[in-house]
Structure formats: C-alpha cells, structure tokens
Amino acid sequence: MVHQFHPGILREYDIRGTCGKTLEPEDAYALGRSFATRVVRAGRSKVAVGFDGRISSPILEEALVAGLCASGADVLRIGLGPTPMLYYAVASLPQVQDGIQITGSHNPPDQNGFKMVFHGGPFFGPDILDLGRLASRGDWAQGDGTAEPINIMDAYVDRLLAGLEGIAPDAVERLGMAWDTGNGAAGPIVERLVAGLPGRHVLLHTPVDGTFPSHHPDPSVDANLADLRRAVALGRLDFGLAFDGDGDRLGVVDGEGRALAGDQLLMLFAEDVLKRQAGATVIADIKTSGALFERVRALGGTALMWKTGHSHIKSKMKETGALLGGEVTGHVFLADDYYGFDDALYAAVRLIAAVVRLGRPVSALLDALPAMVTTPELRFPVAEADKFAVINAVRARLESAGADMVAIDGVRVTTPDGWWLLRASNTEAMLTARAESDSAQGLARLLDALDAQLAASGIRR
C-alpha cells in the first residue's frame, strides 16, 4: 500500500489542509503509518494523541490512531484539549517522547492539520517531508499496536496552577480579568483553571464549538478582541486574555482596552524572568521590535534574534538554554520553571504572577514601554518558485552595498531610521515585510528603501 499526500499540505511547521479537498481521513491514516514507522525504527513505541474542537477532528483522530497502531505504535489518547496539553503529555508521561495533536490552530473552520513532537522535540521541515516519502513508497513498519484513553487534564491544570507558586493568594484576589477562548479547545481547561484561581474572573465563549460562532479564534486580529474589550470595560477589570483555537497563542488587552503586541507582551515577561534569573537568554523571532532586544540587554539579559516559527524558536531555546522565547504572533515559551514549549494557558498564569511580582498593573507596564511606529505585517503574493530567488537577489544587492543586515530568515536591514524586514513565507506563496522606526518620517524612509529593493526585483508592494 502506498499513499500520496496532496503537495500543498506538507508545510514547514505542520501538516495542514482543507477537509474534503486536500485533507481526508486517508491522509490521517497514512500520517499515522509514517510517523509510527519513524518512532518504532528509533526504538520507541508510545505516542500520545490529542485533538482540538473542530468538527473534523474526531474523524481524523480515529484514522490517525488506526494508522499509528497498524505500524506498531501504542497510542495514549488524551482526547479533546489544546495543543499545549499534548505537549505536556509528552513532557510528563513515563516513556512517552512522541505525540501528535490534530488541530487547525487559528485557521478557518474547514481546515485542519497536525502538529507533531518527536523524541521530545519539535518535528518540522525535512522531517515532515520524510513522512511523505515514506508514504509514497509504502515504506511502513508493520505491527499491532494498542490504543487506550488516558485522562491528563487534571494533572495539566494542576501544573498550570503551579505557575503561581510563591504568589500570595490575597494579591491575586484583588485582580479582575476576562478570559476569551473563542469557542476553541482551551475552553474546558480555562473553566477548570479559573475554578482554582483567586480573583474576579469573567469567562467568554468557553463552550467548544468548531464552527466558532462568536468570533474567529485568532487573537492577533484586533477585531477578534472586541468582546474581550467590552468585558474588561464593563467589569472594570485589570486585563483580558484571549486564546487562539488550539491554545498555544496568547492575546492580552490591558484595563484600558489596549491590545499588547506579541513583542510588548514578551517585554513584560522578560522583566519578570530577568529579575529572578539574572543574565538569562531571551530569544525572539526576526519580526520582533528592536525595542525588545534593547530592553532585554538593559535588564542584564542576553538577547538573541532567531528565525520565525514556533518550531525554530523551541529548537533554538533547547540549543542555547534560553529561559524565555517569543514571537510577535503571541507564542510565548517559558523554560525558567516550565518545559519551554508554547503554552498560552501557562503564559496567562505567569502574566498574573508577573503583575503581582512587578507590583504594577498591565496598563502601567505597557505605558513604560517605548513607543515605536511599526507597520503591520505586509503580505504580497509571489510565485512559489520565485519567492526565495527574490530574497536571494535582495540579499546579494544589500551585501554589495555593505548594508547592516541580519540574514538568518530573509533580510532584516538596520539603518539610522530603524529597521525593515523582507522574508519569504514558509507556508504560502507570499513575501512578507515589516518595518519599525521611532517616527513616522523615519518609517516612510524605511518603506521607500524596501520598495526600491522590491522594484529592483520587478515586484511592487
């Protein structure tokens, strides 16, 4: 038996497609066969499997588990929950180092996919392509694995609550906060979590519904924060917390309804971590504000810029021993007293702890950050076959001109006005760009420089 995946679903960081078009239960079965083959040939057998609240997820889970078992894996089915609960299962269960979460993350309801952990670390890039090669050759291990349900939710919630160790309950009791899970997979966890927390809590859209009737579960889109802002204002709460569909990205609004960008949120965490872990390394992706790197250094930490993508950040944190990482998209990675994977629920608990330890509300912490003039992420289509060639041509011209440039993931150019970034999307036929300055005039000059490079490659923004 052989299987061909649709060429568009094997992505850089995960496997993702549109159900009924590019993604079918047969793909889930084949993925299970290929992944279990990798696990078994590495001398292991146990695989944890979880799924999010999308309508297609239970069907895909059944097929995935069947495929895993057919290649000899013993499956621990943790059931419905956020992606970080799957990561926690792999990190905490005895003899488990591998896992798969079925999730469409923050994508439209008709999409779904798979995020994987292999040998305790992220599984991405060439490894994902290798799953396709195994399937196309039918090069699968044969076996008769087992499958059993396991309840890990209570242990996971207890571990989340441990993020408040050392924090006086009466200090949390004075805080008020809203939680919006957007009908995503984090809802049941938040309900249990809040039951164990002091303070005033307002819960929004916690029932799981894969059609996302309240709003789309993507906290990086400002319009999706409207209900959260309203709840914070009506309840006169200190801040609000928003989660994406699978609970690995966090959005925050302060008591005045202002949304914190992902890099601003990371600056708050950096201050808290570095006060307790002097000199720690903090990693942020190449899209991140220059103010973050300056802030980390000012606090006595080591700031490291790295490639965009949650898998890249997790891998670099393991390599360097960094205690904190983050992306502008709202992924937060805490490894000072946690596992180093992106867990928005744990980050939410740690934000509560940080507010108490730092002795200031989120609004005051935000006011203390430098005001920068930043573009949103600019996206424009370029043929898949051309996108990396464009980046290479831009890089070559900049090198010839002696530009101050970081080229680990596209090109990020620093000038007296600030910086601009141009990179190729790893998942779409797109180029993306961003720029930041301390003035509108400086930002305009940065965009002019970006446009000149694009024009030299025959592209208009």
UniProtKB/TrEMBL annotation:
Residues 11-127, 154-257, 262-370 form the Alpha-D-phosphohexomutase alpha/beta/alpha domain. Its cofactor is Mg(2+). Transmembrane segments: none annotated. Pfam families: PGM_PMM_I, PGM_PMM_II, PGM_PMM_III, PGM_PMM_IV. One of its GO terms (molecular function) is magnesium ion binding. Keywords: Isomerase, Magnesium, Metal-binding, Phosphoprotein. GO terms for biological process: carbohydrate metabolic process. The keyword Protein biosynthesis does not apply. Residues 377-451 form the Alpha-D-phosphohexomutase C-terminal domain. The keyword DNA repair does not apply. Belongs to the phosphohexose mutase family. This is Phosphomannomutase. It comes from Novosphingobium fuchskuhlense.
